[in-house]
Design brief:
The complex is a heterotrimer of chains A (541), B (420) and C (342). Chain A is an alpha/beta fold and 541 residues long. Helix content of chain A is 29%, strand content 18%. Chain A folds into 4 domains: 14-31 and 488-538, 2-Layer Sandwich (Alpha-Beta Plaits); 35-114 and 438-477, Fumarate Reductase Iron-sulfur Protein, Chain B, domain 2, CATH 1.10.1060; 126-219 and 357-420, 3-Layer(bba) Sandwich (FAD/NAD(P)-binding domain); 221-355, FAD/NAD(P)-binding domain (3-Layer(bba) Sandwich). Chain A has helices spanning 35-39, 46-54, 58-66, 72-78, 82-86, 98-112, 134-145, 162-165, 174-185, 200-207, 237-245, 263-274, 295-303, 401-420, 472-480, 493-497, 524-528, and strands at 8-10, 25-29, 126-130, 149-154, 190-193, 211-214, 220-221, 233-236, 255-259, 279-283, 307-309, 312-318, 321-329, 335-345, 348-351, 355-356, 370-371, 374-375, 388-390, 503-505, 512-514, 534-538. In chain A, the strands form 7 sheets. Chain A has a 5-stranded parallel β-sheet with strand order 5-4-3-6-19, with helices on both faces. In chain A, strands 8-15-9-10-11 form a 5-stranded parallel β-sheet. A 3-stranded antiparallel β-sheet of chain A has the order 12-13-14, with no helix packed on it. In chain A, β20 and β21 (512-514) form a beta hairpin. Chain A starts with 7 loop residues before the first strand and ends with a strand. The N and C termini of chain B lie far apart (50 Å). In chain B, α3 (58-70) runs parallel beside α5 (88-96), α7 crosses α9 (214-243) and α10 (269-282) packs across α13 (357-368). In chain B, 52% of the residues are buried. Chain B is an alpha/beta fold and 420 residues long. In chain B, α10 (269-282) links the parallel β11 and β12 (287-292). Chain B is 44% helix and 18% strand. Helices cover 35% and strands 13% of the residues of chain C. Chain C has helices at 49-64, 77-82, 102-115, 129-134, 137-146, 197-203, 217-229, 243-246, 253-263, 288-292, 308-325, 330-339; strands at 69-73, 93-96, 122-128, 150-156, 208-213, 234-239, 269-272, 275-279. The two termini of chain C are 17 Å apart. Classes of the chains: A alpha/beta (541), B alpha/beta (420), C alpha/beta (342). Chains in contact: A-B, A-C, B-C. Chains B and C meet through β3, α3, α5 and β9 of B and β1, α2, β2, α3 and α5 of C. Magnesium ion binds at residues 128-130, 157, 159-161, 168 of chain C. The site of one iron/sulfur cluster has 13 residues of chain A, from α17.
Chain lengths: 541, 420, 342
Amino acid sequence: METPFAITLNAGTSRANHTGSWRTERPLYVDRLPPCNNACPAGEDIQGWLYEAESGNYEAAWRKLVVDNPFPAIMGRICFHPCETACNRVQVDDAVGINAVERFLGDLALEHGWSLPVVTLDTGKRILVVGAGPAGLSAAYHLRRLGHQVRLVDSAEQLGGMMRYGIPAYRLPRVTLDAEIARVVDLGVEVELGHAVLDVEAERRAGNFDAVFLAVGAQIGKRVDIPAGDSSKVIDAVSFLHQVAEGDPPLLGRRVAVYGGGDTALDAARTARRLGATDAVIVYRRNRERMPAHGEELEQALGEGVTMRWLSTVDRFEGGRLVLETMRLNEQGFPEPTGEFEELDADALLLALGQDTDLSLLKTASDVVVNDGVVQVQASMMTGEDGVFAGGDAVPADRTATVAVGHGKRAAHGIDAYVMGTALESVPKHELATFEKLNTWYYSDAPRTERPELERIRRQTNFEEVVGGLTEENALFEARRCLSCGNCFECDNCFGVCPDNAVIKLGPGLRYEFDFDFCKGCGICVKECPCGAITMVPEII
Amino acid sequence: MLRQIEGSRAVAETVALCRPEVVCAYPISPQTHIIEAVGAMVKAGLLSPCEFINVESEFAAMSVSIGSSAAGARTYTATSSQGLLFMIEAVYNAAGLGLPIVMTLANRAIGAPINIWNDHSDAMAVRDSGWIQLFAETNQEAADLHVQAFRLAEELSVPVMVCMDGFILTHAVEGVDMLDQSVVDGFLPPYEPRQVLDPNDPVSIGAMVGPEAFEEVRYLAHLRQMDALERIPAIAQEFEELTGHASGGLVRSYRTEDADTIVVALGSVLGTIKDAVDVRRQAGERVGVVGITSFRPFPGEAVREALSGASRIIVLEKAFSIGFGGVLATDVALVVQGSNAKVFSVVAGLGGRAITRRSLEDLLAQSVRGELNPLTFLDLDQAAVDRERARMASTRRSGPSAENLLRDLGSDYAASKAQT
Amino acid sequence: MTRQPVRFYQVGSFAVGNRLLNDEDRTVQSSPNRTNSIDSGHRACQGCGEVLGARYALDAAMRATNGQLVAVNATGCLEVFSTPYPETSWRIAWLHSLFGNAPAVATGVAAAMRVKGKSEVRVVAQAGDGGTVDIGFGCLSGMFERNDDVLFICYDNEGYMNTGVQRSGATPPAARTATTVAAGPEPGNVFGQGKDLPRIAMAHDIPYVATATVADLHDLEQKVERAMEIHGARYLHVLVPCPLGWGSASDETIHIARLAKETGLFPVFAAEHGRVTSVSPIRHRTPVEEYLKLQRRYAHLFGSSPRPDIVARLQEIADENIARYGLVTEEAGESVASEVRT
Ligand SMILES: Cc1cc2nc3c(=O)[nH]c(=O)nc-3n(C[C@H](O)[C@H](O)[C@H](O)COP(=O)(O)OP(=O)(O)OC[C@H]3O[C@@H](n4cnc5c(N)ncnc54)[C@H](O)[C@@H]3O)c2cc1C
Ligand SMILES: Cc1ncc(C[n+]2csc(CCOP(=O)(O)OP(=O)(O)O)c2C)c(N)n1
Ligand code: SF4
Ligand code: SF4
Ligand code: SF4
Ligand SMILES: [Mg+2]
């Protein structure tokens, strides 16, 4: 319109006025490290794969997940999920059911037969992996993906290590275990079972391997000296579970006592119940708060009729009777004897007091340092000996399958760098997306979905899986509970709340950009970003 | 068609012929008959499409008019006196925005003391608002000026106020030659706004303008009024050719050819003055009259021309600037500067006081005798003024004594109580 | 648009957008094609709530009317910072006349649109709280009473900000302004004054009255949309924090608006024909201190000589609002939970 002078102005002409010059601070988009990712021993990009799952792109989510961990169906069952402990959503209501979604993805992948990417690279390097537990399998997987040839040997008859011979089937069905392991083997891993490596140096030389990964675990159940009559049946829990896993359970009688407070103790007791024990009693020196076993597992055990004798040690075992000494916790929380005794009828005592390693295969590897029964390693997982790497239960760390998987990955990269003669690149970690960085107002109220559990009555006699999976709807819901800590999830808040229209929306998946011609640096976008993906920095003058 | 018709009715019907699209007004005497009549016609569906809006105040009436005019509707309103003052902020605003609203001002005095009768104080109060102000001498002219006002306003994007004397014209029934719709339609094209609120071509109307351009904005408004000085006579002439009515224009002279004394005035009083002039002429005095139709823009040149032969110029007006004198007189004096004429300011007819032919004759005679004061208040009751002055003076001097003061206040208070 | 149920979308009901929602279920503001009725380059202070409120409301109105909208603006910050010659920030047809006449001007625009046969063009009038509850009140009440087809939006920043933060009839008790300084036994604005315009509007029995804040965009847009479905006089009162006048950090604008609602100091509701039809329940009930402490206009209530008595009186006001509108309800709590899976 031809408008009258000055009093009438043409629309939108103020864009000529660059108010960005008012700014003293400027917003900056960042990616912060979600606490779940930070806590995941396997180094999964949890927030990343949840993001895909939220959109219902389950295959994409699964693909993102298996970049780090080839066993989502397994992990989704047995991982103790430190990610959930670290999850920021804990401070809103409950942690995101990361583990449940992981399992959902893992199961879906098996159901649909999604396969791992075909390995096309061949470096010509040969790597020996000793031990086919989670550490060894993970290393094999990552090494294959890096293009190396892998020979995986294990003394056992089947692959899986403690995942098969320790963890009972009611927690980890063998079909699932087999299927996920097979998928790794199918990447072209040479497997040799029933072969105990006795001298690792010799095998390395003989096979002309460029490097070795030791993932022998900790196979020997610890024993303590308990005065016991001849007739008294005392077995270590690891052996017991191993035998059960091989389909050859020992006869224990009706009353079984388990000594120890870890997950192995619970598994042993629960297994005993399933094998027909009417009484399965766990004897533990401390109280419930101080028990190392995980709460969920304890609840499940109690639900299955396992009973607890807290603050008790086994003094002696004779003639079907266990003599227990009552303990009390001192101020530091250590158990101290009280001199008071009780009795408990028992036909068998299972010792679940931890495991020791058997590192006799290292006898000629003189540069490998072993302290306190575990192999010392560097950040790359390399031992004191060139080209010999180690991980899993055999090195100092938490003894979990997830840690082992993480070690396998880390070692694979260490080995890759070693055999290829490259430097191991260390990606600097982003700043942690702590709860204070979030604006949780924006998240919908959404209580956590728990996985269904098998009826109690059906858990007493068989090894059917106890914990069920989530339905698709529930898994989606659970994924969408994720706050996307520290990572833009394109909620358009910054785009919407800017009083100066100084945020440019780049389109789906492309996120946003600031228009510094107009951004006045008010900081509203920073404050109102739900997930803490924007920060304020001083203006560069 | 010639009809015996009340001035207000004539105006209302003529406004209706102009096809206004939005009419919004608030009642005040002596404007009421006009808007009642327009309202009735709208309500009866005689004026369609047209919205007649009853509002809660004159401020709203002018504000609604601003909105409707800015949105492209031909807009009409009317008011008087207090009403004009109540809307004055919006009156200025309409002009500032260049909105071609036409408003009838049924001229009336401004209180306090409240007074419903005619004078021109209201029009003078908005003299500088930027509106074109046309004064009607007769009801015929009042009616005709509205048609010309719409044409002028819309051509120039300037609001136009048609001033007609309250009661004297608005309530007088006399013969008015009412126009035909086809004539008005032929004279007044549909409104083509210079700027309009259109969602499909959005502009921002009413920007804040600072020192960097404000003076220019005002000067441009002035130039538009200068353009009006050309357009007003042209439009009047075109109108006359079409209708035969000699209405409008800038100034109109009566028996000024050889006059050495000329009376200058606005509005209906011109009729009485002409009568007085006729009488004085018979007495051989060379007197004449110049009526100013366009007060704003002020037709300086035309006025100078019309007054060129006079040595005495009597500016008679129904308003004055308290503390100085005549308003119109000041304008006239300024434009005749440099001539030998002497300008006399005569304030008359305030608050509806009748301006009689007799008084005017006396005034002319006085002037011819050279006895006229530079500032005269026609028919002033000097005795009443003197009494009040004396009373005030004595009260003032009644001494500083506290007792006196208190007593005075007490009796004043009692007196005022007694009056209300 | 019906309100997006919580479903199991992370932020579907609260954030501006959500990549998981259908476009039509997202807010107008999430669209790159929104009008930006008031565009960049305006001169509002950093973090100004008023400009945000205006863009939210007008963009929603633009969507609701398919772009057939005219806005009339009263004098005030919004007008001054948007249209200093030679530039305007408005992308819509816009008219500013005076401080106190926006409702009447809008009536005129609406009337003109009707006679011009452009009845699809809808009219919004907007003003600050001063232009609404004080100087413009006469015109507003007239517009209401005539039930003119105008949506009037008040951007309430609780004071005359444009003239340097003076008290208005919407300034809350105890708040410091340049004309209610923090001195004397009752520092700041006195208790027992001020107009509750939404309720006054309701008393006119107009078809629609609603309140909103810049902190709940979905609610605000939904209210504008509802308002545009209705013909006749409609009133929307939007709380827009003013960092300058309230003495708050520029990044706190939305947070403070949210707290105003969550404390109960600013009840968010809608009413049709004089009857309350919905209220936005408080999600996390918050004591008024948390709201007050973020604003320097209340600084005299805290610090070295605190006035817990005055804070308590403000809390009473919040509690009364909560009671009057039922802002805290058992059912509200439950319905949030039950909505989750629907
Ligand atoms: C009862 C029980 C329950 C558990 N539950 C959980 C759980 O729920 N979640 C969890 O995360 N962790 C759990 N753990 C711990 C977890 O299983 C281990 O931390 C993990 O398996 C360690 O992996 P790894 O690969 O280091 O060793 P392992 O799994 O122990 O595998 C080592 C493998 O090396 C083989 N091997 C050893 N020596 C030789 C040799 N000389 N030559 C050839 N092969 C050899 C062994 O046969 C074995 O297969 C549990 C452990 C037990 C015992
Ligand atoms: C008639 C009139 N009186 C006073 C003013 C001065 N004035 C301009 S804006 C304003 C205050 C505006 O307050 P509000 O309406 O609340 O808008 P805000 O600036 O706070 O957004 C005042 C007093 C004016 N422009 N016109
Ligand atoms: S909310 Fe999501 S991103 Fe944040 S810690 Fe939990 S799972 Fe990770
Ligand atoms: S909200 Fe806008 S103006 Fe404020 S810091 Fe962010 S981009 Fe800049
Ligand atoms: S004074 Fe307040 S309302 Fe005005 S522009 Fe600044 S922040 Fe906005
Ligand atoms: Mg205000």
